[in-house]
């Protein structure tokens, strides 16, 4: 009997046994984590396929990043599918802008996913980064609902495949949000309709903490040489707001000021996600007027329709609200705004049933640094 060979075989068996035990422990951890998500089978399958169960010591952050990367991979494939869907023979639109809506929403989703990965990878992870990542993922989930609603009225040979791909892709987004949420407390993110929500985390990270920097652009005269001017009478650089936005640089880290002179602008203003840091400044609410004429009744999707009401003219007769939840994961924040007294003291209007408390807990409606009689949040 060769003792050396026997010892070596014993070592190999021990290593394999230890590896199998570790793999089994990791698998149990994956199953435990995934069982808390909305789509546990999808979660388990994606993590096992990524060979994460073979890693030495995976943790919940590892699971989260792998789930996000799977969502990004699926989103890239979905983006290509929407390009094919642009062919009228593949998807027939009943509402104008259906496929274009989904394309743009998908771009926003990709950006949300990539930003979330960046935040999670930026160690050390803290409450602020977790909250920002959760907001991005929540926004992505609303994109799914908006896209599916527009596709609901469409037809064509590619439609069912496209709808299935949308649902499949966003299962991974939903699971990622669930895993992220398990890392933090939800207590400070629950919406209570008995009181108006006041943002209590200080100045948001995307607003300068320097008060002078935040107010200078609103209160001082702008340097004409450093801004684009829109004038309906032809005295500016452009006659339409859309032309000025198209001229502005893409993905700029510097603020682009577009000054819109007094006049009526009959156009539907859209600012794409790649047109960053654009600031629109007018001559006042009674001087610079922008009107849009798209509506669902005219065949446009809700995403692209615009309806402007004159609330102040009927404020003595009708009380209004800052808003109400438009489905789960809604996000709305009013900041540095004048709010008049025709706003109901409750602020926000509940549209979910009491049985839908789980969906209520996904909402975030905030107010920060507003003024006016309707801005009080003490009630």
From TrEMBL:
Pfam families found in the cross-reference section: Pectinesterase, PMEI
SUPFAM superfamilies named among the record's database cross-references: Pectin lyase-like, Plant invertase/pectin methylesterase inhibitor
Q: Show where the Pectinesterase inhibitor domain sits.
A: 26-179
Q: Name one GO biological process term.
A: cell wall modification
Q: Name one GO molecular function term.
A: enzyme inhibitor activity
Say yes or no: keyword Secreted present: yes
Q: Which keywords fit this entry according to its UniProt record?
A: Aspartyl esterase, Cell wall, Hydrolase, Secreted
**Cellular compartment(s):** Secreted, Cell wall
Q: Highest taxon of the source? A: Eukaryota
Pathway it works in: Glycan metabolism; pectin degradation; 2-dehydro-3-deoxy-D-gluconate from pectin: step 1/5
What Gene3D superfamilies does the database record attribute to this sequence? Invertase/pectin methylesterase inhibitor family protein, Single-stranded right-handed beta-helix, Pectin lyase-like
Family annotation (CDD domains): PMEI-like_3 (cd15798)
Q: Does the keyword Cell cycle apply?
A: no
Q: Family assignment? A: In the N-terminal section; belongs to the PMEI family.
Specify the protein name.
Pectinesterase/pectinesterase inhibitor 12
Native species of this protein? Quercus suber
Origin organism lineage: Eukaryota, Viridiplantae, Streptophyta, Embryophyta, Tracheophyta
